[in-house]
Each structure stands twice: as structure tokens, then as C-alpha cells.
Amino acid sequence: MKLRSSLTTIALCLITFATYAANEKKLLADTNYRKDLPPEIENPECIGINKLPAHATLMPYANLKEALTANRHASSYSRSLNGNWKFNWVAWPIDRPVDFYKTDYDVSKWKDIAVPSNWEIKGYGTPFYRNIGYTFQKDFPRVMSTPPEKYTAFKERNPVGSYRRDFEVPATWKGGRIFITFDGVDAGFFLWVNGKKVGYSVNSRNAAEFDITKFVKTGKNMLAAEVYQYTSGSYLEDQDMWRLHGIFRNVTLWSSPTQHIQDFMIKTDLDAQYKNAVANISASIKNYGSSAIGSQSLVASLYDGNRLITTAQVALGSVKPGGELPVKLNFKVNSPLKWTAETPKLYTTVLQLKQGSKIIETVSTRTGFREIEIKGKIFTVNGVPIKLKGVNRHENWPEVGHAVTEAQMIRDLEVIKQGNCNHIRTCHYSDDPRWYELCDQYGIYLVAEANVECHGLRNRFNEDSTIKAAIVDRNVANVQSFKNHASVIIWSLGNECGTGGSNFLAALRAIKSIDKTRPTHYEGFGVGAQNPADLDSKMYSPILPYENPSAKQKVLASVEFTATDKSLTKPFYMCEFAHAMFNSMGSLKEYGEAIDKYPSLLGGAIWEFQDQGIWNRRDPNHPILAFGGGFGDFPNDHYFIHKGVVASDRSAKPHYPEMKHVFQWISVTAENLQKGTLRIRNKFQFISLNGFKASYTITKNGVAESSGNINIDNILPLTEKVVNIPYKPSTFTPGAVYYLRLSFVQANDELWAKKGYEVASDQFELPVSKVLVAASTTAIPPLSYKDAYGNIAVSGKLFSLLFNKANGAISSITNNGVEVLQKDGGPKLHLWRAPHQEDDIYANKGWDSTGLKQLVWKPATITVKQISASQVNVAVNLVAKGKNNFTVNHNVVYEISGDGTINVNNDIKTNAPDLVIARLGVRLFLNKSFQQFNYFGRGPMENYSDRKSGSDVGLYGSTIMQQLTPYEKPMECGNHEDVRWASVKNSTGNGFKVLANDNVIQVSALPYSDEELARTEYRMDLPESTATVLNIGYKTLGVGSNSCGPTPMPQYTVTAKPASFGYTIKLFH
């Protein structure tokens, strides 16, 4: 006993010593790693050294002609430093080339890297995808503490990119000031010019600008930048995106005179009638010279194109050397055309600093005349209540990561505008400066968000004084940089940093001290009296209240409650809603109806615009459009990167037509379909429908029968007009299916769409008298059956069916001598689907606990009856067992006719009637030669019960492979709602048609089974197809949006209650 005790004591001592040694080793390692680390990197209070204060995005121009372009990069005083730089990358700061900035340091053997770019995209280091959390060890303010060994950061502790290039300073710039602007560097960097240290910057999403006059000379110069992947500022950059690094935006060298207009702000103020305007201008003049200046003036001129509209001038006081002078002036404009997202009219304001008649400096900006007000709970632009219908957008393209080009920005705006969006939230940082200029031009209402998110630590920084300056600085930089953009209508303080605390209150005060003309937003402030911002906000609220919630829960949970609660006094904005991850975004229609219905519901931004996949081509034999973990990155948040209404390449996903239809600004409602009377509503807030053309088409069984034009002239904003479509239901063929479709297209070219682009449509099923089916007088071929060898064979003239008596399945269908099914591939009850993210969070737990995926069917009871010479009925009684005593009873009757018609009636009963199931239907496995799929139902893209508004009923067809929706992670897909019939054929036309017995069914035809889809990680890893898998459904569970939001609404939920349904199979002969 004493020996055992002694051994135990020794073992404990050894464990304690080992633990102590490990901790000591870790501490020593952390110390060694930091011994050569610049102290600024882990100092949260160091937000920059020698960095110039943020100001309006501007550029001096050589003359008025240049200024009227308002193109900073076309200025004679601007030089792009984009292009190839010499580059070196190391995984640890201790391994960086410390002296690389010296002019005699040889970098000739270094490789080139393109600027702008992310170094990970160029093959250096590891891209990370994170939604919540950090890629380094959390140990604020440190970023180099030792993480677990499985972390990628264990081996790549804090990568450093060393950049070098030469540049030229023109002789014509001599005597002026020389500046360099980095529009985006992730995450922090030191700068040297000609071997001299210039400064340091953090905040990867706002411009870092330095005055390098004293460091440069005319002619050739050398520039060096040392970029760190992590700084203490990285704790505020925990956004839901790929974590990519390097110099990823433009680098610009530029010059100004020694008397410089260093900042200005233009505030447009409309009169009480919103007709005439005053432009109030505040500017700051900086004297970089060695002597005082005086007798100067500042002239402000407004141009419409090249035409001068008005001008104003103010004399300046003396400005001492190194001093700054604030200046104010204004001009009046009679009846300017107003800027809105629908009418994005822009003028050009030119500011000129003059000495007598001599022009010292010229700067300019585009100006939109608009005024934002909140009237009670109503958000208005130019006195008119508006609605925001839009998306959250990250800066990301699969080929370039975060180094997004202007052409890609324009493509984004085209797709967004074509989808009927008028709003974008810049989640969750300041975007490239060019983006705001384009949004002014294209007509977008921006919620401009600051580069602040600490989702992985939430409330950790609410009261931390060491990081307060950084939070305030990032908000100030956001406002100062983009304050002159008409498109910016709301300032957002950041995202998912908890409740904000005193640090966010300080940021709010700083914003208001600069700009009181725009409302403010921060979702973390909450809803109600405690919210100091101007908008109430809550992300991912369901439309309806949960059952029996407390009053507080109602406010937090329900859009409807929040929009109608009289105790709330502010507009309500859904900064994120309708989460679009993979196969999702259910009930957008109901959100759209709520936005239109409730005046105080401002609207919101879908999460999110695009999937954020990036290409991993590091293995040339296996390129993948990666999600988290696709580069071996750890930790990661895996599939969560794919949440867009469009794919990473901006091709439309099934979510896109749904968004386009729900957000459309022209709607049609049926007044009286018997008489052809409809009501057209113009939901635009500022334009009539004169810029559009309308037409109608009437189809019979999916084929166009008649069409015509509709007069929509002079339907003014927010008004309606009743129109009559010339048709008579009395002339319709009884029993046929008629639809009326109205289409609205652009009458002229727009920046974002060509003439003829369809902006809105609506479809209505027309009333048709039912037809009584008369008994066929055509002789039906005879039919017989045999019961032998464990099978029941039913044979007709050109076809035969074989029933497996052991399991009750149709094991074979031979039609015209061709086998249609795989073995035992006939209709089997199918209640499961390959789960998508929403299912995993919601219903899949129930599917797993009941064994819904792998039900075990007991031997069947089969009864055969010859009804007539041409009809045989086969009744099959089946019982399936799952897990935890889950039981399914399935009774099915096949009424088989000699002409190849098989009428199928199903009765289902389970012992868990409240269990949410994926679908109520059957599945068939067909031979893979059956590759042509046609149907009369909703399409052409997949649609589901809670995501089908944008899918018209029509005739559609494709190959089976084309029915597979290309989600990067394979999953349930391809469903079509409201199907009257569907057919599957091979290349010779052999096959069959499935018809709805009672109104409509849901159908999908895919090259893979749910099981194959569920077990495959990447789409490109799907195996070669071995079958065509046909699902015939009575009901299908809605997709919801509960990967980050509400579950499917009750009307779109399918449970295992007793049910009966039928369909008919008609073989082609």
C-alpha cells in the first residue's frame, strides 16, 4: 500500500514537473518569437505612426478639364504604383529580412508579386475561412501566443510579406508636396522610402496616407513595405470571410501644391418643398509652406457635365506656416435634379484655391442633391418614404480574393440592380473608394459600415480603454473618407461586437460630430429606448412572433411585432435577414410582404450577395472552389462561406430569381380573373412607369396562345392602375391549364441593363371549367399476371412489370423491350433528403434519431387481383422500422392497365405524427440511359414550397445532369413545385410520364441519390453517375433560412401525420 502511494506521489510529481516544463517552454517560446517583433504589432493603442488624418477621398487636378472627370487616377498629379513588386514571404517575423528596406539590400533574386493582390492567392501562406473566431491564439493584445499544434498558426505564427519597388518622382512635381496612399493593406505595415522609415499603419480597410516629401527626390526612388499578417488590430477584423493578406488595393503616389485643400465636405440642404437646394461646403486649407499665406480665395463651382450651373467664392484669412484654415461657403441651386437610387443624377462640384486670378489648386467630387430625414418612425429621402431591398456584399471574387477590380465591381452592381435591389450594406468594413463612386453613379442606397468586428470575443472590447481609440478611429476614417457620396445614407458603426458599451458610444459621438445629416446604425445596441443610434435593428428575426413569447422576446424575435409596437419610436432595419446558405432563403416572399406592409419597416439586406469561394489550384490535378478547410486551414468554419444569392462567379443560383421577383418594384394583383381585370401597382418611390413597356401572354398547357401590349403610361410613383386583358374564359378548352403572364421590360438602355431587360413579371392561373372524363371507347390491350419464383409478373402487349414479393418493390419495368429500372428500382417510400445546413440545424436531428435515412422494411404482403381483362391491381402492405421504435406503415395500390397506365395510390401512417420529415413521396432508380427530363411545372431552376415565387409555371426540359444545382457541397436540390406532369426518356424516346392525380405534385430527377450527395464533400468529387433518380413528392419540406435564422414557417413544414396521395405513370409506346 505504501509502495502504491509512493509511486502515485512520484507520478504526480512527474506530471506536475512535465506540465511546468511545458508551460515554461511555451513561455520561453513565446518570448523568443517576440524578441525581434516590433512593439507596435501587439500594441492596440498604436493605430498609426506619421499617418495623415482621414479626409475626403480627393485628388488635385492640373486644370478644369481634368477636374470635371472626377477621376483621381486620370490626374496629372497622380501616379499608380500598382504592378509588379519584389516580394519575400516568411511564416515567422523572426525570419524576415530585417534590413530589406536599405537601399543597398539586393532583392534581385526575389520573386515578383502583383500589387494589388492577396499573397495567399499568389501561393504564399494559407488562406483561412472563419465566420466566428480568430485564426491565431486569442490572447489580447498579443497575436503570437502559442496556439494548439493543430492550428495553422502554430507553424505560420505571424507571416510577414516584404515588398520592394522603385518609383519615379516627376520633375514637374518639384516644389510641391508628395504623398503616398495605400487604399488597403491587410493587416498592418511599416513603410520606408529610400532607406528611411516613414511610418506605420493598422486598419486594413481604410486608406493609409503618408507625406513623404522629405524622403523623396526627383527621379528614381525606392519604396519598401513590411506587411504583417496579424497585429493587435486584427482583433477588430473578425469578419465572416476569407482571411487574406497583403497589399490588396491601389497604391497611389500623388502631389499637391504647398497650399493644399486637404479636406472638404458638401452637405446638400433641400427646402421645405424639396425643390430648391443649398450646398453648404466646409473645407480645410493646409499651408505646407515656410511662410504665411494670405489674399487667397476659395471658389466653388457646380457643373452639369461641362455646363457651369452656379459658383460661389469666399476670401481666406491668413494661414501661418504649417497651419490649417477652416473655410465655409455655400451656393444656391434652383430646382436641381435630385439624386435617388432610382434617379442617380450627379453634378460635379469643383473647388479651386486661387491667388487673385491664379489657380493654385483644383479638386472636385461628384455631388448628388438629396436629403435624408426620419419623420417619426418613417425613413425618407427627399421627403418621400423609401424602402431598402438589398444585400450584404463582401469584397471577394474567386480568382482574386479581396483584390477586386473595377470591372468586377461593375459586374456586381449590374447583377445587384438587375435583381431589383436598391440597397447594399458594406459588410463589415469600408470598401474600396471606387465602389462608393460607382454606387453614386448606378443608384444604390449604401449602409456604409466601419471596419470593426470582434465576433469571436463579442463584448470583450466594450469598455477596454486600450482599444477605444482604434474603434473610434476606424469609424472616423469611414465617415471622413466617404462623407461626400450621395449613395451613403446611413453610417454603421460595425458588426457583432456585442452591446457596444462606452467605446461604441464614443464612436457614435465622433460620427455625429462630423456628420449629423445621416442616421446611424449598430445592431448590437438593440431595439427600444436603450438604443442610442437612429435606427432600431435586429438580424435574422422571424416574420411572426414565436408562440407565447415574453414581451422582450417578441421585440427580439418578430419583425411583425417590432414593426407594429407603438412603444418603439424608430425605423426598423433588418441589417441581415433571409440567410442564403446553400439550398435555403425560404419565406423571402413573406419578408417582402412585411416590408411593403409596415411603414416603419425600412427594409433590409439579405445575407449575402455572393458565395465567397476562392479557387485552390495548388494541386493542378484537383482544382477546387474552396470553402473553409479547402487549403488545410485550421481552425475554419467549413461550408459557411457559401451563403450567396449568386454563386462565386456571379452566375445565378435559384435564390436569385426569387429575390428578383420578391423585390420587384412593379406588382400585379388580380381584381377579377373571370373578367380579365388586374391592378398594376408602381412601387417605385420616385419614377413613373413611362420608362417601361408591358405585355401579356396567355398559355394553354404551357404553350403560348395569345399575347399583346399593355398601356402603363403615367402610372405615377406609389400609385395604381386597373387594366383589362382581352380574354374570355368561356372560350377556354375545358380541362386545359391556362396561365396569364404579365411582363415589364426596360424601354431604354440603362447603365446596369440593356433595353428589353425584364424587371418584373407576375403570373396567374386562369379559371377554366372542369371537364368530365368520358369513358374511352378505344379498346385497351389485354393484361395478365403470373405468380412464380418469388415474383409477380404483370404483362401487357408492349410492357411488363415485375414485383418482388419479398420487399414489395417493382424490381423491373420493361417497355418496348427496354429495361427502365435498375434492379428493385421501382417506387419506394422516401421520407429523407441529403441534408443542407438548415436541415442539419433543424430537422436532421429528428431524422437521425428515428433512422429516417435507413429504414428497414419488413417483408411485404402482396395481393393481386385481375379486375378485368385489361386491368390488374397489385396491393402492397409494407412496414418499416427505424431507430427508437419509429414505425412506418405504407399501403400502396398499383392499378395497372393494358395501355401502360399505372395509377398509384399511397396511404402512409407513422407512430410519430409530429416528426418533421424531409418529404412525403416515393423514389425510383432508373437506368442511367434515361437522360432527358421534361415537365410542366415551376422552373426552370429548382424551387421549393417556401421559395417558388420567382419560378413561373411552364414547360421546361433539360438533361438529368443539368437538373443538379451546382452547390459546391452536394446536397438536396433540383425539386420542382406545382408539377402537372413530368417525363423521363432515353435517346430513342422510350420512357414514361408521371401525372398528378390530384392537382399537382413535386418532382426532381437527378443523376445521384440523396445518399451519394450527402457523403460527398466537393461537387467536383461526385462519382460518375450510375442511375437517374426520380423523386415524386406529395409534399416537400421548405428550405427555411435557419442556418442563421428562422426555421421553415408552419405552412411549409411537413410532418409524419397520416396522409394519402397518388400519381399516375404512363409508359410511352
TrEMBL record:
One of its GO terms (biological process) is lactose catabolic process. It comes from the Bacteria. The keyword Signal applies. Keywords: Calcium, Glycosidase, Hydrolase, Signal. This is beta-galactosidase. Residues 793-1066 form the Beta galactosidase small chain/ domain. Gene3D superfamilies: 2.70.98.10, Galactose-binding domain-like, Glycosidases, Immunoglobulins. It catalyses: Hydrolysis of terminal non-reducing beta-D-galactose residues in beta-D-galactosides. Its cofactor is Ca(2+). InterPro entries: B-gal_small/dom_5 (IPR004199), Bact_Beta-galactosidase (IPR050347), Beta-gal/glucu_dom_sf (IPR036156), Gal_mutarotase_sf_dom (IPR011013), Galactose-bd-like_sf (IPR008979), GH (IPR017853), GH-type_carb-bd (IPR014718), Glyco_hydro_2 (IPR006101). Its EC number is 3.2.1.23. GO terms for cellular component: beta-galactosidase complex. Residues 1-21 form the signal peptide. GO terms for molecular function: beta-galactosidase activity; carbohydrate binding. Monomer. Belongs to the glycosyl hydrolase 2 family. The keyword Signal applies.
